[in-house]
Amino acid sequence: MQDKNKITGSGNNLIARDLNITISDLDNIYQKDISIIVKSKINGIDEFINKIIPDGILLSKNPNKETRESFNSEKILKSLGLLGVTLTAALAVVSETVQLIDRAVQQNTDMSTRLVRGYITESLYGLDETIFSRSIIESWGDKYIRRYGSETEVKVVNVDGKEETLKHDFLRNNIIPVVVADITRNAGPQIAEFKILSHKALTKMATEIFETLASLNLYRINYETICNITKELFTQPPHPWLAPKVRSYEHVNYDFGRAISNFKKAKRYKSLGNVPKCKYALKEFAHHSCSSILCYYSIYMGCGTLAPLHILNCSIDAILKKDNEKLALLFKLDEIKGDLSKQKVSIGNFQHTLKKIIALLHDPKAPTPFYIETLYIECENLHNIILTLITPFLRLKKIERIGNYQSPLTSRSIKYLLNDLFMLFPGLEWEHHKQNESYWVFHSYDVSIFKQIKESILLVTLQNKQIKINSYISNWLMISDKYKLTCNTIFFLYDINHINISELPLLENNDKFIVFFSYQQLIETIKKQNPIKEVEKAIRAQVHKN
Fold it and tell me: In this predicted structure, what is the pLDDT of residue 326?
């Protein structure tokens, strides 16, 4: 990096060149992350600008007190990145902007954020057209002016045509209560009256809504549009804040599915010794598992990553302290104590698990293998608890759902149907095989014919696009030979409206169980009291026939 003491002249080019990455910078690239190189260079520029503007950049003039802040190149890079400006272009803009600031300071200009935004706009429109096309330069410049220019205040157009400024207070007081009431219907007044949404939560929601609206780069936006966007933010993945009713199947199922998926990822990352990815997967697991519990017993899951974990912990605390007023507000959450008791799980131990997870996830120290092992054990406890609390409800709903599947089945509906069916067989785990039309299904059944079936079952879907069905099946038998040590069973699933059963070959194989199931047959099987027993009967019948 250039010696910052050499950056001395008015309008000199050394400031811009300080952002260049040279060959010498890259000599030890394998030992030095490129992000560190860039960070050190922009830090050097910040030091230079803040040295020539020791009082800081003026934010606003107030009769009582002026507000100023230090110059921050990274803040400019972030704002440009939000507009889709490429990194190379953004770095060029910063280089030019700091030179314009330097020249202005030399002329005794009192630097303000308004002036800095003007310099950034000038630098954007002045980008080299031999590197960036004129159309993209103008697009970036126009977006910057709309977002950060002189008309930075977004106006809300109300139903009566009158306009008002979009502010956090407007979102908190005028938009969020209306949207919550619309989503929850009867529960809306209770939420408002008893302040279930804390001031902190409302502020965070308002901030996220405001940032989303600001990203649209509009001067004016209709009131109804704001309400619709806010409703989507409240109810849509990846982290919904609110459900329309207690035990909304779509929301409980979504969070439960994400929780189980992330726990599987964490298990895999732990076995590979990948500590950072394991921690992230466990963090997502904790969020979605607590969100699924909250949605099962109430409707409010909270805003922000890990908010459900904290809300659930506070709610359990209220139950233990017998805070009846709070319990009344949490809809059916007070039922959790009885539900846990039926499974011989103490609510006190449940809260202990939540508190341990909170403490571990907020530990600022870099994660170690021992840390991950401890966090994994606590998350495994939570995993077992959500299976106890949530699975029975989802099983009933999924049995209702699979009865409504229409044949012939599309590729999309097959995927959802299979995920429902897999869950309805207790003790199964599954994942996609590298080819989309197949799955690995893992079981631990130690009964009857399953004692002879190895732990991995290859499940292949037969669709009507496979014209030469015999050769297609034979190909999969050859593929399965690669997995002899862990797999000796192949299930072929077919739709009776796509494939004629007479087309399916009789296969003789002494070292494999090869079984054909129709989706309709599996749907009927799952409705029986003991589905595993019914599957065993079908396997025996086909093996005997072959």
Answer: 57
